Known about the structure:
With 541 residues, the chain is of the alpha/beta class. It has helices at residues 12-27, 30-35, 44-51, 59-62, 64-79, 92-104, 116-123, 142-157, 175-183, 204-212, 217-231, 239-252, 270-282, 329-347, 357-368, 402-411, 436-444, 460-466, 493-510, 523-540, and strands at residues 6-9, 84-88, 109-111, 130-136, 166-170, 187-190, 257-262, 290-293, 309-314, 323-326, 381-383, 386-390, 418-424, 447-452, 471-478, 515-520. It catalyses: alpha-D-glucose 6-phosphate = beta-D-fructose 6-phosphate.
Amino acid sequence: MTTETSAEIADPSLAREAESLVQRLVNDRAASKLAAGDPTLWGTDAEEEASARLSWTTLHETSRGLLAEIDALRAELHEEGLHRVVLAGMGGSSLAPEVITATAGTSLVVLDTTDPAQVSDALEGELDRTVVVVSSKSGTTVETDCHRRIFEQAFSEEGIDPARRMVVVTDPGSPLQELAEESGYRKVFAADPNVGGRYSALSAFGLVPAGLAGADIAGLLDDAAAAFPALASDDESNPAIRLSAALAAAHGNGAEKVVLADSGSGIVGFSDWVEQLIAESTGKSGIGLLPVPVENVEATGFATAGGDATPVAVGPPDGTASISTRGPLGGMMLLWEFATALAGRLLGINPFDQPDVEAAKEAARSLLDGPAGGPIATPAVVDGSIEVHPSGDWLSPGVGTVAEALRSLVAIAPSSGYLAVQAYLDRLDDASITVLRPELSRRSGLQTTFGWGPRFLHSTGQYHKGGHQNGVFLQVTGSPGADLDVPGRPYTLAGLQRAQALGDGQVLAQQNRPVLRLHLTDRAAGLVELVKAVQDLRAAG
Length: 541
């Protein structure tokens, strides 16, 4: 892996179009102002929010004090035989630790799901060797609170003191900090409150779980520190300036999608982390950049990107990529954070708020007041093990199969729109559903994203509601084989999962985003039937 963090614009025409934006950022001294925490860069309307969200630019320095604390706690845990780390967190609290540990080759069990089967799998691990990191900036994240309650009960049932197995990462003064201190939890790490969740990779939210799992977090900060001087410079060669200018120039020409593929970076899962950063930062006010992570540089949507998308290689330059970015993980995280914030300035949006995220949460909460996480709807069509539930009246008359319903959904997608596949299933046992992304992209000709619910609600969920209104949405839900009660709450995990799916679908439909929900009454059989339906759809094309 290269030790230098860089960004290269390989497309000559894009490089020419970006040049004026590069000069604008240089002349405005935008990079050095960003590095210094200047909140005025995004206009007066964003100034109040930005003033409390810019401490991430110096985390490579300010997070150093955490290293000794994390090392000391890890040594204590290992001395007690606690080697298995489970992370309960969503969005920025889970995506960064996951990519850090995956790249380092260390083991971390990540719970960013409400699927009862996936949570049950985590519970069936070696509880006598397990410590749980409960990570929530607000201290009120519903999914994370459920995980905490479920593991507390499981520890107690095994005769284990739950408080000795709980480590908390949260903002100072949050409800979670208060609860942890009252309950005598083993350790509370108070994070920097002036860092937004999606910019928190190098804060306690990224470092604590990754460090406890054995990743080299000191090296991560070293790599970010090495990249910082170039990223903070008001110079045409600044890779963050060049990257942000290229993305903004492409957006101005109608390429509002950013297709991300690894080209040999040595970093595992980087596109999933940067997806949240870009989508939640820029997808608002009816504009923004939609990240589309794909399988590799040969995948449909990358090598075949049209005028509505910019292919970006994560790693060495690739012949089909318009832009390539590379470097060690710490440097790459800081590069993309700087570039995303600067792109927000060029696009004229506030990169630090998320005005449309709360709507789906409110809808889910209201549905939890009823039984089973929402009303039981009558399907428009039943095809084998799959129920077809369209939003509104867009479904073509006479549709009788899943393949026909999918064809109707694709047909109403706007020109140069996108298709979002949202799977409220088990990320491990139901992983075969990921084949839908390339298959549907190939058949539809649309840029196609894939997200696991509810974790995507904390990333691309903002763009879906606040970004360009040219998407169509395929939800896939499934009947649980077994369920889990949430101690102290009047709902189960399956009920919460259902409410999250129906709530988000409801909000999308209210904003005239077409939603097709396919419910698998038998998950194993339904997944096979769904893949076959997509293949039939492609053959019919």
